[in-house]
Amino acid sequence: MAIAKIKGKKLEMTPRAIAELCAAGALAIVAVVFLLAGVNRFRLRRSMNAALEKHDTNHRAPAIEECRSALERDENYHPARQLLAKVLVEEGGSDPGKLAEAEKEYQTLLQKGYDKANAHVGLGVIFLLRADAANDAKPVSDFASKARAAFDAARKADASCMEAEIGLLHVRLLLAVHPATRQGNPADVRGDFDKLRARLESAEAVRSRITREGLLDLYAGLGRALAGEGNSRESARSLRTCLVYAPQWTTPLGNLAYLDAQRIMAEPPARAELENDRNLLSFTALLQNAASVPRADSDFLKEANATREIALSYAYGLSEDFGWLVDKLERAGPTRYDSLSVSAFAWIRSWQRLLERKDVSNRTGRASKAAEAVKALLAHERMKDPKNPERLVALNNAGVLYTDSAVINRAPHHFPPAEKAFQEALAIDKGNYRVNRNMAILQKWTGGAAKPYLDAARAAAGSDDAKRKDLDAIEAWKP
Are 409 and 363 in contact (CB under 8 A)? Predict the structure, then answer.
């Protein structure tokens, strides 16, 4: 049986119904758009909050990831780019490449119209760090001038910017204490830091304008100025104040570690005194006594201890009587290139001190430790790059250590690894004066052909009379 067709008029919509339906559809589309925008905004804020939390607890790598995640959602979200640049600057202390990334982010902020004081302050800090890392007077002065211009631009953008004022004091302090410049008196700069601190303590309006980072820079600058005057006790007190404002940050702890290193070099305590009372070191005392220090297995404390080890290894290596302390320091781990590098330096210097003093105590053990430290450094991933200039230095050091050990400790089995190290170094730079000179000495000891290496060293020495006389003495010398 067929289904009967329903009789009646066809379904028709009035113009009003069509209009209402279109309006409803448009509203639905708008609602979806707003919903998606809201979800995106929520995720953006969530990434930003996570970045702030990670940064505040000194987890910089996750903070960088969260900032970049936020910028992928909105490249014009200035707070994320600003925090990203700031964290990259903090990472730049150990990785110059991060400073270049940070500068790019700050320049992007300015290009996008974010002409705020903190962007200029960030650029000023980058130039200050580069000036501090430079070795010669010209680059130090050039970077200091760029830093001063950036801080002046920050004051132009905001006349009440305290961070810009503190930054300008840091420029003066850097020029006063940097070995390549020594322009001005650190005591004068310290006096201006003190005046600024007095203004903060006496005026609520001034205190309300400064950020936590500004306070850290203020007390860090004051501590550095005091250290430059040789007042290590007051310097440590000022640097510890930084920890009141940022108990989870490693930077104040790093400053204390380097203060310890300066004290070891400038005013080394008696050996027994230092061995029995580690509280003589401001950083060690802080680790032992401060209730705010996290558990020993935290990333925060591991980083702080690594910084301490690097600073003190360098100091002990330079000090006359404290090379033995290098062995007492906790190792920062095989992945720390800077730690391995400074540890190798410290052991080499410690070994050289024994030779200079003709001290036979623990001579064999010290040579072995130095060789182990250089070997560990050469095994690092960065040392596998043949373009790394530090590889040649490390190989030369290894060759010298093995040669000295073979001769002084009467260990002839160390001659072959010495020759191998020199050959690898010459494969990097066959005309290197120092490596050819040392290889010639090795050949003299083993009865090999020293002349080709002496000739190469003479070619590298050029008209340097001191080097040529040294090579003549080596050629005439008979073991």
Answer: yes
